[in-house]
Design a protein that fits this description.
By secondary structure, this protein is mainly alpha-helical. Helices cover 65% and strands 3% of the residues. A two-stranded antiparallel sheet has the order 1-2. The longest helix has 31 residues. It is elongated and about 60 Å long. The two termini are 29 Å apart.
Length: 225
């Protein structure tokens, strides 16, 4: 047995066992999702996003949460994927606290993000489904999550700063409409995430095909030879 150098891509995507390759790619997809959530929060705080309320957090939580993820037999990774929403949102909590300190509205924004992740979990989609099906389901789920998040956080704003009356609550929700429309623009993030998920599960699986046996030799032909 002799040693041969391994390429970086080999170390990331795994060995020749297709199950392990798939598990490692899905782990990488989960890590990318966690990084996107942290980067989105940083960009939002810096005012770099293209629209008000445009963010990557809710689309990423919903898309990653929507999939039944195979990450192999490793117990630690099963915990990470099971609690992905809470683990990934730790970066959001820390960034908020580090920049602004604790604010009462965080009780609504943080719980709203966790609720969006839970909404995504109800889909239980397979990465091997058709792209159109995945895009349709996750886009609708993301839109619903955005609407619920905005209704919930607007209610929190009313409790904290709005006039404590039905007319005051109505005024808060009317003022929220333009921001919700901008927020729905975050759906533009869903197609690239679905495309990345589909790309990650493209693992070649060798399938032997018998096409015949040479008479008198007992030698089995292989497909393509």
């Amino acid at each position: 047995m002799f040693w041969s150098p391994r390429k970086p891509s080999y170390k990331i995507f795994g060995d020749t066992t297709q199950g392990r390759i798939l598990a490692k790619r899905i782990r990488l997809f989960v890590l990318i999702g966690a990084v996107l959530i942290a980067v989105s929060k940083l960009l939002y705080h810096q005012g770099i996003m293209p629209f008000p309320n445009f963010e990557l957090i809710i689309p990423t939580l919903v898309v990653v949460g929507s999939f039944s993820l195979y990450v192999g037999p490793t117990k630690q990774w099963r915990y990470i994927t099971r609690y992905f929403g809470i683990i990934a949102l730790i970066s959001v909590f820390l960034i908020d606290l580090g920049i602004w300190g604790f604010q009462p509205i965080y009780a609504f924004t943080w719980s709203g993000f966790i609720l969006c992740w839970i909404i995504g979990l109800r889909n239980r989609l397979s990465m091997f489904d058709r792209f159109k099906k995945l895009l349709w389901r996750t886009s609708i789920t993301t839109a619903v999550a955005v609407l619920i998040f905005d209704v919930w956080t607007a209610f929190g704003s009313w409790l904290g700063w709005g006039a404590k009356s039905l007319s005051g609550l109505a005024a808060v929700y009317l003022a929220q409409i333009p921001f919700t429309l901008y927020h729905l623009a975050s759906l533009a993030v869903v197609p690239p995430l679905i495309g990345l998920a589909k790309l990650m599960v493209k693992v070649k699986v060798p399938v032997p095909v018998t096409v015949g046996v040479r008479a008198g030799t007992g030698v089995q032909k292989e497909h393509g030879r």
